[in-house]
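sry for the spam today, last one i promise. struct tokens for design, 359 residues
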């Protein structure tokens, strides 16, 4: 289910139904977007900015359908897949201007794990670089220590030792900011809804607008760990399919995705060491004194941006008295569960608490 209350400009641009409505030029009265603004009037500015931008891109496109198809192939920077992937030919401008808007990325991958697929081609760093028509600048960190890199758009990268990345020298003039990586790097991306930031790494595409995250490649797998903001990930070979954009795997802070390149499996989970989110408001206190367990879990969710499921009726009498400070997230959770006689398990990106209740 879409969480319209959380929509920002980039979310509207990513929404195929929104893009279709803009393309049709229909009045807003009676549509779901009219209902959205009635429920969340504070979203009007974001909606109008996204609509204006899509209209501008739609009316400003001057490429032929053939040229548009070739441009998509350049962006994907891919080779012919080993497995058959459905191809949607560009027979209308409606399909391309969403791509030209740099946010509807043509396809995605399903939530969870893809199984039973044949091996997909290897998108090795050298292979993708050679097939790209972009004017690239490469940074090769052959040292054992990390190297700071600043991109033309102001985004900052901490490139780990023995890692390489390439980026378009003229990325600020393009509809998308594209980076190619092998090794490991931490990204702090300058926010720009009109220019999505894409990182290609060993067959996995990571798409963001403005956030911070880490990408690691190696041992036939790619991992993406999100620190702040939201990130969409999907296999590069899926980028040309006709799947809905909702099928992208969306990651939020303290979540990660691991992509097994040969098995074509993409699995979301929680990072091993979640970090407390920075808040402009007063920091969350973990000094509990006869605090209802519902409040305890609510503070954890607010501080770390994670979802904790539990039976509120069964645990309604549970209270916690324990002073917690700077312990790691899972240490806090262990202490809480042991104190009230409960247990927890992590299933994907969700934490589930099991308890027989408290007297």
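last one done:
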């Amino acid at each position: 289910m879409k969480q319209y209350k959380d929509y920002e400009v980039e979310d509207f641009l990513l929404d195929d139904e929104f893009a279709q409505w803009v393309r049709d030029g229909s009045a807003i009265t009676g549509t779901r977007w009219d209902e959205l603004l009635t429920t969340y009037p504070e979203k009007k500015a974001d909606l109008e900015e996204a609509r204006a931008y899509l209209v501008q891109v739609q009316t400003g496109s001057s490429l032929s359908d053939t040229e548009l198809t070739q441009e998509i192939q350049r962006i994907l920077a891919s080779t012919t897949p080993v497995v058959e992937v459905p191809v949607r030919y560009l027979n209308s401008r409606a399909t391309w201007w969403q791509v030209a808007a740099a946010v509807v990325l043509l396809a995605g991958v399903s939530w969870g794990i893809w199984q039973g697929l044949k091996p997909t081609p290897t998108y090795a760093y050298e292979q993708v670089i050679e097939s790209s028509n972009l004017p690239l600048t490469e940074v090769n960190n052959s040292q054992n220590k990390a190297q700071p890199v600043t991109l033309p758009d102001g985004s900052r990268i901490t490139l780990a030792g023995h890692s390489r990345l390439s980026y378009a020298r003229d990325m600020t003039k393009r509809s998308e900011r594209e980076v190619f990586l092998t090794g490991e790097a931490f990204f702090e991306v300058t926010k720009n809804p009109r220019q999505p930031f894409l990182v290609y790494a060993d067959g996995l595409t990571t798409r963001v607008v403005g956030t911070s995250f880490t990408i690691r490649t190696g041992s036939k797998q790619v991992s993406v760990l999100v620190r702040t903001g939201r990130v969409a990930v999907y296999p590069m070979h899926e980028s040309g399919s006709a799947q809905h954009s909702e099928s992208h795997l969306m990651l939020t802070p303290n979540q990660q995705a691991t992509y097994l390149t040969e098995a074509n499996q993409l699995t979301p989970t929680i990072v091993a060491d979640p970090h407390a989110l920075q808040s402009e408001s007063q920091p969350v206190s973990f000094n509990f004194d006869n605090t209802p367990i519902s409040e305890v879990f609510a503070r954890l969710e607010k501080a770390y941006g994670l979802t904790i499921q539990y039976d509120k009726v069964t645990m309604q009498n549970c209270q916690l008295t324990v002073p917690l400070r700077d312990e790691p997230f899972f240490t806090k959770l262990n202490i809480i569960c042991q104190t009230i006689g409960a247990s927890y398990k992590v299933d994907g990106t969700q934490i589930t608490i099991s308890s027989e209740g408290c007297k």
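Residues 23 and 45 are 19 Å apart (CA to CA). ok im logging off now
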